[in-house]
Write a structure and sequence with these properties.
The protein has 399 residues and is of the alpha/beta class. It is built from 14 helices and 14 strands. Helix 6 packs parallel to helix 7. It binds pyridoxal-5'-phosphate. Homodimer.
Length: 399
């Protein structure tokens, strides 16, 4: 059978990360390539208790079909929490529970983008979202990143130059993959530019609660008085990615369309998982849980930084991060990055080549991404040592 595919998916490729996972599945390979929460970060005991309680008290509620908008109690509690703690959600906004934040990207793009519309993205940016945008045949335009977030002049140039720009996609906190956090000034600048040029902002914030250093910076959505920001949140990095519970907070007319689209995709997000998230947020000490996560990642990051200093500095450089799960490492210009990453796998350590995160994968890139949350402490240190040995060989020194 010769299969024929839609134009929409014809050019889609499996993400480089998924490909790399094949190598990472080898038990001998140390994977610094994933983006998973640390095994010790899961509140497994509490979730077990909550699930048992739900089945004792409301088994049919947990097993029956539910409403597309999301489990009503979770919607109510989550919106109140986001309003109180993050000033997110005005009278013109609504909340929709989704199957992970990934589905927010999908539903929002489906609702607002036509084929050929332009989506402005930070370069580099999260592969999962870029592939979603590509699947709707949107044209991606990468805007360079600076130490304090997206380049505002690059953004304004693109807004002046490009026709049919629909929205800017941004990950302001501990960005995946660069680890960069956008300054408050830039957040205001981005919002003002979006307002001036009449585009929307898709603000993706899966890592915001994982700040282990520095001061909290308000979300762009928190100063949205015009209804131009769609906010994507998720429980993936703070409770469990396997439960697939995320959420969108944004202007009601757009959410209404996203709800119709969701009906055609998965009817509703897994109701048992939604009930568990709701109980965990409301009946357990959620803030103490978040504080515990920050402590886990603060220690892991300190370990990774120390190993990087010892094994890769000063030839490899990186932007120090204040939260999240990733470090973006830049090799000297003399070393070919894709070859370095391939050879690293042969030495049994796996990192993600940076060009996988670009809007155009063929653009030059000397960086790779390291994840410090998933490996054990021993694997993290050993993995970085192996990278250091390879680096010294490449630079012609002694291993
Ligand atoms: C920046 C970013 N956005 C969205 C997601 C998707 O998260 P979810 O598991 O909620 O779909 C991820 C997952 O790694 C991510 O890094």
């Amino acid at each position: 059978m010769e299969y024929s595919f839609s134009d929409r998916v014809l050019e889609l490729k499996p993400s480089a990360i998924r490909e790399i996972f094949k190598y990472a599945a080898d038990p001998e390979v140390i994977s610094l390539s994933a983006g998973n929460p640390a095994p010790e970060a899961f509140p497994s005991k509490a979730i077990g208790e909550i699930a048992a309680q739900i089945f004792a008290q409301d088994p049919i509620g947990a097993l029956q079909y539910s409403v597309t908008e999301g489990y009503p109690a979770l919607r109510r509690h989550l919106l109140a929490y986001m309003q109180k703690t993050h000033q997110i959600g005005r009278a013109f906004d609504e909340i929709l529970i989704t199957s992970g934040a990934q589905q927010v990207m999908d539903l929002f793009t489906k609702s607002v983008c036509n084929e050929g519309d332009v989506i402005l993205c930070e370069a580099p940016s999260f592969i999962g979202s870029l592939n979603t945008f590509r699947s709707y045949k949107a044209r991606l335009c990468g805007i360079p990143m600076e130490e304090d977030g997206i380049s505002l002049s690059g953004l304004e140039d693109a807004l002046k130059r490009e026709k049919h720009v629909k929205f800017l996609y941004t990950i302001p906190n501990f960005q995946n993959p660069s680890g960069i956090t956008m300054s408050l000034e830039k957040r205001h600048g981005v919002y003002e530019l979006a307002k001036k040029y009449g585009i929307m902002i898709l603000e993706d914030n899966p890592y915001g609660d994982l700040r282990f250093a520095g001061e909290h910076i308000p979300a762009i959505k928190s100063f949205d008085e015009e209804g131009i920001v769609m906010y994507a949140g998720t429980f993936s990095k703070v409770i469990s990615p396997g439960m697939r519970v995320g959420y969108a907070i944004g202007p009601k007319p757009i959410l209404q369309k996203m709800i119709v689209c969701k009906q055609g995709e998965d009817v509703h997000t897994n109701i048992l998982a939604q009930m568990i998230c709701d109980e965990f947020m409301t009946k357990y000490d959620y803030d103490a849980h978040l504080a515990g996560l920050r402590e886990i990642y603060r220690k892991k990051y300190a370990l990774a930084e120390e190993a990087l200093q010892k094994n890769l500095a000063p030839d490899v450089t990186w932007t120090p991060v204040e939260g999240g799960l990733f470090i973006w490492c830049t090799l000297p210009d003399t070393i070919d990055m894709p070859t370095f990453c391939k050879e690293a796998v042969l030495r049994k350590v796996c990192v993600v080549p940076g060009n996988a995160f670009l809007t155009n994968e063929n653009d030059p890139c000397h960086a790779f991404r390291i994840n410090f949350s998933t490996p054990t402490d021993e694997q993290l240190v050993r993995g970085i040592e192996l990278l250091g040995t390879l680096l010294r060989e490449k630079l012609g020194g002694k291993a």
